[in-house]
Amino acid sequence: RVQAAAAAHECAAIAIGTLPTAGLDELAFDRAVTAEARYAALGTRLTDERADDEIAIEGEEHLSLRLPGIAAEGTMSALQVHLRVDPARFAATLNAAHLASAPVLALAANSQFVLGRSLWPESRIALFRQVVDGARPHPGHPSRAPLAHGWLRGSAYELFVENVRMYAALLPVSGSEPDRALHALRLHSGTIWRWNRPVVEPGDEGHVRMELRVLPSGPTVADMVANATFILGLTLALAEDSALVESVPFAAAEANRIAAARDGLDATILWPAAEAPSPRPRPLRRLAAEMLPHAREALIAAGVAPGDVDRNLAIIERRLARGVTGATWQRAAVAAREEAIGREGAITEMLR
Question: In the chain, which end has fewer C-beta atoms inside a 10 angstrom radius, N or C?
Fold first, then answer.
């Protein structure tokens, strides 16, 4: 349906983490943001709350500019995976997802270019945080785009309490319906963009599930399904040994995610070691290869058909073997064309 609508305007839809051809003139609020009241209110409140309008990302190249408003969020696209588990397993599983995010993110990277600059393999991670918080957040103010604020010790309830106590409400709630408090909690929690966050669902007899938000969109449907397969499998595998997960300081899990976004397949991350009392630095590519069999076993134990698991994880294996992700392919495709037609033309042709 999207492709058919786009074709009427001689356009096509594409799945990519950051849209590399977007220019500053296209990021004006009135051009890029829907007229719905929710987004107007979010744009005003976030602009008032964050420390500055600066975007400053140091990667392969450097990007530094003022970017008022929230329109730059429209240049980013993610694949969000929802996972529902037994409530008694929620904390162990969410903690495992925090740790699993880094190796899967590096392999899924598909966001190399922003505003014509080659930045991080997964530039979306840095760009989103700065659009929400500013380049230099207020000291002592919690980020609205954190991985988390520590390992979860009890239940999802702790996270909703954090949301209410730590963050100012950005959007108003009106009406007097019986579930007004629940509606307010859901609306407020939707303005705190944890990279792995709880979602409370009043339907389907009521439940709380987790939303894994770290993956970029693209490059293809097959790639996205493979990424989802790996992050779900690795999360379920790591959740089986919560003590192993928590042997890593939470600050290291957050640093791992940034390293994976910034360095891609070349990242080194801290990872728990069963034979050692503290985590050890590991080359991400080698670690990911070791984790694939564990992800496979966990998915099959959870009831996923072995053929589906093997087909999807084989895509991840081939990326590892070739050292190619969406981001590395983007860089190579632009480099091959840039001398002949310039950076702007090379990015346009790469996207085509």
Answer: N
Model confidence pLDDT, tens digit, residues 39-90 = 888 888 888 888 788 899 999 999 999 988 888 888 999 999 999 999 999 9
324 phi/psi in degrees, rounded to 5: -120, 125
CA distances (Å), 308 to each of 293, 300, 320, 350, in order? Answer: 14, 10, 19, 31
What DSSP string runs through 209-241?
A: EEEEEEEEP-S-HHHHHHHHHHHHHHHHHHHT-
- CB of 15 closer than 8 Å to CB of 217: yes
Question: What DSSP line would sit under 269-313, residue for residue?
Answer: EEE--TTSSS-EEEEHHHHHHHHHHHHHHHHHHTT--HHHHHHHH
User: Is the CA virtual torsion 158, 160, 155, 272 positive or negative?
Assistant: negative
**What pTM does this model have?**
0.94
CB count within 10 Å of CB 80 equals 13
The b-or-e profile of 198-221 (16+ CB within 10 A means b, else e) is: bbbeeeeeeebebebbbbbbbbee
Q: For residue 242, which of 87, 95, 90, 86 has the smallest C-alpha distance?
A: 95
Question: Which DSSP string corresponds to 148-166?
Answer: -SS---S-HHHHHHHHHHH
